[in-house]
Amino acid sequence: MPKLIPITIPKWGIEMEHGTISEWRVAEGDKVAKGDELVDIETDKIVNSFEAAHDGVLLRILAEEGDDLAVGTLIGVMASEQVAEDEIDAFIAANSLASPVAAEEADARADQIAATATEQSGSQPARISPALRRKAERLGLDPRTIAGSGYGGRILRDDIEAARASGDGMPLRQLQGAQKTIAERMTLAKQNIPHFYLQRDCTMEAPLAALDALREQSSAPVTINHLLVHAVAGALRAYPSLNINVLPNGIRELDSIDIAIAVETGDSLLTPVIRDIGEADITRIAQLSAEVVARTRNKELTAQDLEGGAITVSNLGMLGVDSFTAIINPPQVMILAVGGIRQRVVLDNGQVTAERFCSLSLACDHRVINGATGARFLAAICEGLDSM
Description:
Blueprint (H helix, E strand, L loop, with lengths): L3 E5 L9 E7 L6 E2 L4 E7 L2 E6 L4 E6 L6 E3 L3 E6 L5 H11 L5 H21 L8 H9 L18 H9 L11 H16 L2 E9 L1 H13 L6 H15 L5 E4 L2 E4 L5 E3 L1 E2 L4 E2 L2 E2 L7 H16 L13 E5 L18 E5 L3 E7 L2 E15 L5 H16 L2
Parallel strand pairs: 12-16, 16-17
Antiparallel strand pairs: 1-8, 2-4, 2-7, 3-6, 4-5, 6-8, 9-19, 10-11, 12-15, 13-14, 17-19, 18-19
């Protein structure tokens, strides 16, 4: 086993190019065993835990929570035995990927300040990682004034937070983790995808009657969402030209009907994909949906669980929303926004009756879908609901 062990941003999934440090589970100087969770890394809205491959001690943390880094970037160093500080520094220099220009400049500036201060005052420079030095600098803190509680007197993240708490001012909170990733993806989606929106009110009498019957027959809990997903799957069968993804280098035609559903997790919103449901009945869709929802809320999703599908179904009706429009999640080409079920008065063969309905809003990518095709697709969804 090597004496010094690098910890780098891993590559989880074919499309993964970078990861965000969500939370360090251990601190500098902690002993860890093989299989212990070292750090949570976020990739495309999900969080996976990176485990120790060997027994040892975590000597250095080189990236702080919220740092977004390329796959392969060195974020920490472990050791299987006692190692001199200069040996660790040499190992880091030899194993680090090229840093962004801003980070290089910040490190150079911090090192210059520390060196100058040492020459002028004769004091020792603070023992702190480059990432935490940048954090202290952003907060207006001088690392030389912070008491380090880590291994060998190194300054840890908690030391910086304690120093900040003891000072004045109200620092800005930065977007981090899932919130930061979602903000970036939605901003790019809105900027790069020419959205257009189609709205339609669909009668829900037949679906609600079918729902009552299914709840009596099925052992799996069935909800209105499962009926909506079934109707969308039927519409994709009728319009296979819309079962596509738009990629930077072309259009990918999908060979199965996979549909994403929006799932709230408390602090985030994820869109796991229910796969291969082109011929599935409502009970089967309910079973598959329950599985992915449970895995989402238990934080057991993988990057592959969020990939694929041409459309997402997002329902806010249970929160009292009548109707809304949503942003397409690339590389998908549509998202269906579902409002709550309401009642209205209608005239049927001269008779005034009450009818239950809901408002559907379909957002389409105008690069690959025209208005007429989108309208027919939305009509097919409503027809699928009405024929249940």
